Amino acid sequence: MHCIFCRILAGEAEASLLYRDDRCAAFMDVQPVTPGHLLVIPIAHAVGLADLDPATGGHIFQVGQRLAAALKASGLPCNGIDLFLADGAEAGQTVFHAHLHVIPRVKGDGFGFRFPPGYPQHPPRATLDVQAESIRCGL
Ligand code: AMP
Ligand code: ZN
Questions:
Q1: In the predicted model, is pLDDT for residue 138 greater than 80?
Q2: Which of 20, 60, 80, 123 is the most buried (most CB within 10 A)?
Q3: pLDDT score of 1
Q4: Which ligand 1 atom sits closest to the C-alpha of 85?
């Protein structure tokens, strides 16, 4: 078994587990962006959004939401939360077992998205409408 997260679930690799049920588990990120940064993962191996069972994806979000509340109550510095899932290498995914990051945020923690040159811009409404139609066609 080569997947590090499957190995964690099988008890073959160490992790600081904090939650587990029949569909997902959560443990501390080994390289936390901020203290308390944790990951929620499906028990069944899925690489990303395309092969993640949608009901499990919803469940992972619900557990992430509960854990966000638990983080705020934990005493760890946490004035805000980022929920983040990187789907694909070009989106920043480095571990190819789907995972939802739950990242505590405080003012001045130095973390954040980097925006492309020229941002912010306001495309014409017609452009947004065309894009919306393209996406709608994919539903
Ligand atoms: P991503 O770049 O979205 O794929 O995030 C992968 C995350 O997994 C990173 O934040 C890593 O620090 C974390 N990570 C990698 N290996 C382990 C591990 N063995 N235990 C806990 N977290 C890990
Ligand atoms: Zn896996």
A1: yes
A2: 60
A3: 73
A4: 3
Q: Which residues surround ligand 2, an ion (CB under 5 A)?
A: 3, 5-6, 45, 97
Q: Is 4 in the pocket of ligand 1 (CB under 6 A)?
A: yes
pLDDT at residue 109, as a whole number: 97
How far is residue 33's CA from residue 30's CA, in Å, rounded to a whole number? 9
- Considering every ligand atom shown, identify the ligand nearest to the alpha carbon of residue 3 and give its number: 2
Q: What is the number of the ligand 1 atom nearest to the C-alpha of 101?
A: 3
* Interval between CA 119 and ligand 1 midpoint (Å): 29
Q: H or E element: which one contains 18?
A: strand 17-20
Residues 6+ apart with CB under 8 A from 6: 45, 97
Residue with tokens 């990187």: 86
Give pLDDT tens digits for 94-133. Answer: 999 999 999 999 999 999 989 999 998 899 999 999 999 9
- pTM for this prediction: 0.97
Q: What is the pLDDT of residues 69-96, one digit of tens each?
A: 999 999 999 999 999 999 999 999 999 9
